[in-house]
Specification:
Layout lengths: L6 H14 L7 E4 L3 H17 L4 E4 L2 H9 L3 E2 L2 H4 L4 E4 L3 E2 L5 E2 L6 H9 L4 E6 L12 E5 L4 H14 L7 E3 L1 E2 L2 E2 L7 E5 L7 H9 L4 E4 L1 E2 L5 E5 L4 E6 L5 E5 L6 H4 L5
Helix pairs in contact: 1-2
Bound molecules: ribulose-5-phosphate.
Catalytic activity: aldehydo-D-ribose 5-phosphate = D-ribulose 5-phosphate
Protein name: Ribose-5-phosphate isomerase A
Pathway: Carbohydrate degradation; pentose phosphate pathway; D-ribose 5-phosphate from D-ribulose 5-phosphate (non-oxidative stage): step 1/1
């Protein structure tokens, strides 16, 4: 099975596998969305089945909820959990301050709510996600469908007046139709190239009527576990300033890969 994985997928896997070690017995854990987070869910499922790890998972999307149940994780809602010990999620970009762009997988709203309700957030990512300045990845903005074209025009006008907007903004599509989030909203992807002041941009976007939330995660992430295609991992902790280097063996496991293809 390992021979079929690309170096990027291996990097995502080793980051997820290392991060799964941070989950302790009895924890309530926010489970992110996306391909890296899906590896995490599989690794945690393996720990539940093989080590008897007792944990409850709070998924950030219907996709993750489905996978988590499939691999044997006890799934509960955020309202049941109320507060979480830890959230582990992927990211589209992270910078040196561990600020993030998220939402490439369309789940930023639940992801931000769950991460904010956690004592700690750990991001898992392949090394290709590290950037000096956020913004090369299009910034997702979740908006209500009502009057979305008016909201788009307002967002564009405001960002042009702030000298922020690069090329344009595009409505995320799913084939011929708008992509619809788990909350029934649409997504606007902002093509910005480079975000000079992400904190200010996030505040401005969230003040606009019609905008529900944006994909900038500022001061939420505590640690990043970075995976490399050759099995190396690096754990950077923003609070302690420590960097820990490690290696994860890429072991083929029928259990782990049996549910591939979510
Ligand atoms: O924010 C996200 C979903 O909304 C994902 O974490 C992000 O898109 C990274 O995805 P992947 O792990 O597949 O590269």
């Amino acid at each position: 099975m390992s021979g079929e994985l690309s170096p990027i997928d291996k990097a995502k896997f080793v980051a997820a596998k290392r991060a799964a070690d941070f989950v302790e017995d009895g924890m309530r854990v926010g489970l992110g969305t996306g391909s890296t987070a899906a590896w995490l869910v599989r690794c945690l499922g393996e720990r539940v089945r093989e080590e008897g790890l007792r944990m409850r998972g709070i998924p950030t999307s219907s996709r993750t909820a489905h996978l988590a149940r499939e691999v044997g994780i006890d799934v509960i809602s955020l309202d049941e959990a109320k507060w979480l010990d830890l959230t582990i999620d992927g990211a589209d970009e992270f910078n040196g301050d561990l600020n993030l762009i998220k939402g490439g997988g369309g789940a930023l709203l639940q992801e931000k709510i769950v991460a904010t309700a956690s004592d700690q957030m750990i991001v898992i990512a392949d090394i290709g996600k590290e950037v000096e300045h956020l913004g090369a990845f299009p910034l997702p903005v979740e908006m209500v469908p009502f009057g979305w074209q008016t909201t788009q025009a307002l967002v564009e006008e405001t960002l042009i007046s702030m000298d922020v907007l690069g090329n344009n903004s595009t409505l995320r599509m799913n084939g011929e139709r708008p992509f619809v989030t788990d909350e029934g909203n649409y997504l606007l992807d902002l093509h910005l190239n480079r975000i000079g002041n992400p904190r200010q941009l996030s505040l401005v976007l969230n003040q606009m009527p019609g905008v529900v939330e944006n994909g900038l995660f500022m001061d939420i992430c505590d640690k990043v576990v970075i995976g490399f295609g050759d099995g190396r991992v690096e754990v950077r902790d923003i609070n302690s300033g420590t960097v820990e280097k490690d290696r994860v063996d890429f072991v083929e496991s029928d259990n782990l890969f049996a549910d591939l293809g979510d």
